[in-house]
Amino acid sequence: MTDTIRETGLTGSRPASTAADNRAKTKKSLPALLTIFLLGTLMIQAFNLVFQNVGDSLGMSANASLISTLPGIVLGVVCMLYGTLCDYISPRKMTLFGIGALVTGSLLGFLGASDFWVVVAARMIQTAGGQVAGSVFLVMAMKYLSDKERAFYLGLFNAVYYASSAVGIFAGGLITSVDWKYLFLVPLLSVFLIPTIARNTPDTGAKGDRIDVFGIALFAVIAGFVAVYFSFPAMWILGVLAALILVFALYVWKGRNPFLSKKFITNGPYMAVLLALFVFYFFNFACVPIYNVIGDGIYHISLGQVSLCLTAVYIVATLFGCFSGAIMSAIGRLPMLILSAVLMVAGCAGSALFITKGFWLLTILACVFIAGITMSYTPLYDSFSATLPQEENGRGIGIGDLMMNTSASIGMAVYSGLMANDHLGSLALPGFGIETGSQAQASNMFWIMCAASLLALAIVLIFHRPMSKQAPQGD
To answer: Which residues of 309-333 are buried (b: 16+ CB within 10 A; e: fewer)?
Structure first.
């Protein structure tokens, strides 16, 4: 992969000095953006762990899950929204707005900790604010850095996500000893990063471009209904969703300058990357619950022991995330995607075959599987820069984020449905000491996950040429 810098910004060709200045500022601001994203992500992990404790303490045990699900819905919408807006609005202004929302949500949650609905609202505001930094980080890395630099920072971004997951899982047995309301104050550390953000984040934007408020809002509503459906499934939501998608399709086809043009929608290489992203991350959310089921139902070990093993898995994911940029620079995008899929196949197939051979062996195989998923992130997101013009990178990343979260949500729904079906455990693989029941059920689930990984490999091999095709850039 050649080490090039593409700086054909939103308003046409930029002078070399402007390109160099934006690149230098971006490299200075990315660590601060990454830190803010980490603080926001830690909040998601922390409250996913303690939401029931919060609900119990406020006398709202039956509604406690809303502390986790409603911010999750917000996250699904704003991932798409912020990425798209980065094509139009200054990254500096967006980040400062995000910090403001993060701080507002933190103070609101801490001061209003005695009211359940204030806590829910505060978590939604916190989540919306914290994600701005993540979206701006990805878009700036795509637009302003060289190929090798971009690969490094994409890997680092992925590593931070999994590191926060590791910290969240490890803290599961400790967090209940602390008054949960103090969790709200952790993101206030982002205030100290405001001078760095204000000084170094590029203040660029699309001059003269009209923001397609209607189109973006309609797409955000569609994203919201998708997220709502997988949190609260209902047939009427599917009906509303179908109608909204039809309206949006007509708007793209007939509207004047929609933010997603017909050319964007019919961009075959970009759609191939989205398809690969969808399949690679389909069972991403199922990694943790399936090992909880195995630990309890097959090995009869405590949740604390399972948590310790899963912490090790996410530490491995963090390490592979850190080095994924260097790996891609060394071997290239296509070989890395193939390697990622092969690792996922090996991890799932091995777990299916050796489900009864020891939980530590399964932990090692889980590390192999999670390494594959982690390594796929950098080449897939790097492919967005190759398949889209630079002025559309924000939209591409936003829709990619939406696709990844939606895929994992669908996969989690499929996983839950299959694991609740007793027929899945009625057929055991002969010759490996697997009995019908919980052993066969987990083993067969791993075979289904293996099939999805093989499909990911097939998609990469079939569509690798269009996925690697360089998109024409602005004049």
So the answer is: bbbbbbbbbbbbbbbbbebbbeeeb
